[in-house]
């Protein structure tokens, strides 16, 4: 399947000196909701970064791609680039990753911008050593078993990280399935609404729709905090935020 996704002109084997050798499964960080996002220092299309410094006091959407010059990824990066102003309104930064080098990324960006009629302004990580792919478990079982080989495509991972450097949401897609960029934007907005208002959001929630009062909040406390609300069941109470 990966042979169909990757153009032969970009198939490069990293040198032994560039390989990352700490791929012991027992040392792999356990990424969970609420765990700290593993830090790393690495080259990107916007220069070298320290990931925690890059996050700063913002939200971050961190997403990986199987390889450069792949068809689905070209559409995805373009879609994220087009939505970047909306993410910025939420105080969220975008950053991508592929297990190829900066030079390859920069050439690929030309295709992305041409196909999607947009500019890619966010950085793309050059994870040639696959260190970040390992730390964030961005590999299928087959690719993990072959991590010490040449070009190893990652799965399509998405991590939403808050200003405290905590993982708040994760989505993993197979290489054959393109993501929904609008859903990722919805996730960031819904998390912020929940944090800022002490509520939770129901299925398919979007701005302006009713939210849910957590069951841990009593009716009396909910009335004092929110005013009027609709009580469907003891455990399901909804309201429209003002």
Describe the structure.
It contains 8 helices and 10 strands. With 242 residues, it is α+β, with helices and mostly antiparallel strands. The strands form 3 sheets. A 5-stranded mixed sheet has the order 5-4-3-6-7, covered by helices on one side. Helix 3 (71-89) runs parallel beside helix 7. Residues 1-20 have low confidence and may be disordered. This is Peroxiredoxin Prx1p, mitochondrial. It comes from [Candida] jaroonii.
Spans of at least 5 consecutive residues with low confidence: 1-20
Residue fraction in strands: 15-25%
The CATH class of the largest domain turns out to be Alpha Beta
Helix fraction, binned, reads 25-40%
Q: For the terminal residues, how far apart are their CA atoms?
A: 49 Å
Mean pLDDT: 89
Radius of gyration, in angstroms, nearest whole number: 20 Å
The total of helices stands at 8
CATH superfamily of the largest domain: Glutaredoxin
Order of helices and strands: HEEHEHEHEHHEEHEHEE
Structural class: alpha+beta
Number of strands: 10
Largest sheet: 5 strands, mixed
What sort of overall outline do the alpha carbons produce when their principal axes are compared?
A: elongated
The CATH topology name of the largest domain reads Glutaredoxin
Summed up, the domain count is: 2
If strands are numbered along the chain, what order do they take across the biggest sheet?
5-4-3-6-7
The oligomeric state of the chains shown is: single chain
User: How does CATH name the architecture of the largest domain?
Assistant: 3-Layer(aba) Sandwich
Protein name: Peroxiredoxin Prx1p, mitochondrial
